[in-house]
Amino acid sequence: MRQSSAIARRVAAASVSLVLASGTAACAGPRDADAGGGAEKTPAKGGTLTVLNSAPQTDFDPARLYTSGGGNIPGLVFRTLTTRNREAGAKGAKVVPDLATDLGRPSKNATVWTYTLKKGLKYEDGSPITTADVKYGIERSFAAELSGGAPYLRDWLVGGDTYQGPYKDKSGKGLASIETPDERTIVFHLNKPEGEFPFLATQTQFAPVPRSKDKGTKYEEHPLSSGPYKVVGNERDGERLRLERNPHWSAATDAERKAYPDAIDVRSGLDASVINQRLAAGRGADAAAVTTDTNLGPAELAKVSGDKDLAAHVGTGHFGYTNYLAFNPKVKPFDDPKVRQAIAYAVDRSSVVNAAGGSSLAEPATTFLPDQKAFGHTEYDHFPAGASGNPRKARRLLKEAGHENGLTIRLTHSNAKNDETGPEVATAVQDALKKAGITVELDGLEDNDYSDRIHDVDHEPGLFLSGWGADWPSGGPFIAPIFDGRQIVKDGANFNTGFLDDKAVNHEIDEINELTDLDAAAARWGALDKKIGRRALTVPLLHPVYKRLYGKDVRNVVISDWTGVLDVSQVAVKSS
User: Fold this and answer.
1) Which of 34, 199, 213, 302 has the most CB atoms lying inside 10 A of its own CB?
2) Do 346 and 484 have their domain in common?
3) Residues paired with residue 231 on neighbouring β-strands, in sequence order
4) Are 51 and 61 within one domain?
């Protein structure tokens, strides 16, 4: 996940299980309860599910969707070669087959991946889904007019760096690195080993699109469905999206999506406070409503915690996201590791967590990788500051660095309120560092200016608040963009903010990428995180915690470690 705007960060929600709003009780799997929290009920087909969201579901075209955003609405319409396992908690962080019969068959060095489509796959019009459609769907994502999706295919596929899409392809043959020897077989040729290709194959760019049905930028108005629902209305570019059953979808070919409701009504562009008010009141259609992008704030959470019925309808959890202090070692005094270490010791994570909304909405972090097994999380704390900081140790390091009388530095942050990169967290850091003799001048920027500044290699600040989330639950898309020296971007958005370009680190990243054993890869990502952490190029601060209301008539709530959002493909609004 590219580091996002304040709005996008707030919609990148997460949950691993159902937890009461007080945080004192949890269950590991789906829970079906009536409005009074009574007996469990069996989910049944029927009814209409309403989705109330802040961000519009814009650009509803598989080529343009970045699947880490937008909740999981696209997965109701677009199937891909692989998908996430639709189970609660850690089991949901696994990748499983979708259109394909398996996770793919790699060559010895993981540079060639072969997939076979299941039999009997059909679009909403009853026509068969073929590998030629999958190939074309991928190729059209390279067209400039359909930009916006994840960038990996351009980097990974042989010839992807120069291909401009089918609209400019005069040969009509498309990418030679994607072969379709028959209607059910597709082969990908990569320019480097990528053991995590099955994760990439979950991205919406892998959704099939028949060439004959492609309408370019207008395809989003009525994309051809390969999933359990089809689009019957798209108003004001995703502000209201209406879905109904796809009569040609077969559960026999799709073990992941339950498709309980008859229809799904997605209403977006709503104010967050209005969404939470409607979900809390639960009147009319709102009793069967959910949100996939709107959290409860501290004040709202306090009210919900005091209401037993509402507390029973809150999903809580952790998306793979880390907020941290980032250093630019090219800017003095941050070129001195002892200064960076001093700041790491001085940070008061208790105050930072409180500034982010309290322990119900944030957890302290000492590792860059999130605290989830799928990422390869390995516990470490190279600069132990305890819960409230260690200013004495920080002062000693500053003295060793020649700053016996302290120093003055500048901290750049976003001006977005109630955001982990905003003024509240910045002030908490400022207060903590003051105890160590470090005067912090705050430099608040409006969100667009802030994003542009921290990603510009020529103007990157010396110290700033930042955050990162992964496109899939693995250490790879978490570690590589931030610490791989070959990903330093000089003429665009740069995310390797510490400008680390270490041959040993780069080599280890390459070796891990060759592994197709994802558990073995996870262990090595964790070890690499621990190794890089000693350099103090970042100071991990917190992992956000997300809490979301859902309607009293909603059944079969499943929240996994992959997306962190309530899975709309599992929800029912009727019981038997």
Assistant:
1) 199
2) yes
3) 243
4) no
Q: Of the candidates 405, 391, 389, 403, which has an alpha carbon nearest to the alpha carbon of residue 435?
A: 391
Angstrom CA distances, 346 to 341, 390, 437, 563, stand at: 9, 5, 10, 33
d(CA 365, CA 538): 11
Per-residue pLDDT band for 343 (boundaries 50, 70, 90) equals very high
Distance CA 437, CA 460 (A): 25
Whole-number Å distance between alpha carbons of 518 and 39: 39
pLDDT in tens, 95-113: 999 999 999 999 999 999 9
Classify residue 108 as exposed, middle or buried by CB count within 10 Å of its CB (0-12, 13-18, 19+).
exposed
300 occurs within a structural domain: yes
DSSP 313-338: TEEEE--SEEEEEEE-TTSTTTTSHH
Q: What is the mean pLDDT of residues 546-558?
A: 93
Quick one: 283 and 260 in the same domain? no
Do residue 334 and residue 247 come from a single domain?
no
Query: How buried is 227 (Cβ within 10 angstroms: 0-12 exposed, 13-18 middle, 19+ buried)?
Result: buried
pLDDT in tens, 123-143: 999 999 999 999 999 999 999
Could you give the CA distance from residue 188 to residue 266 in angstroms, rounded to a whole number? 35
- The answer to whether 89 and 28 are in contact (CB under 8 A) is yes
- d(Cα 568, Cα 576) in Å, to the nearest integer? 19
* Residue-level pLDDT at 14: 31
Please tell me whether residues 313 and 420 are part of one structural domain: no
Pair of tokens at residue 117: 């489509």
> Do 411 and 464 meet the contact criterion of CB atoms below 8 Å apart?
yes
Q: Which whole number is the average pLDDT over 178-198? A: 97
Q: For the chain, how far is it from start to end, CA to CA, in angstroms? A: 40
Structural domain includes residue 360: no
pTM for this model (two decimals)? 0.89
Domain around 520: 325-353+374-544
CATH code at position 381:
3.10.105.10
Instruction: State pLDDT tens for residues 195-253.
Output: 999 999 999 999 999 999 999 999 999 999 999 999 999 999 889 999 999 999 999 99
Contact 67, 202 (CB under 8 A): yes
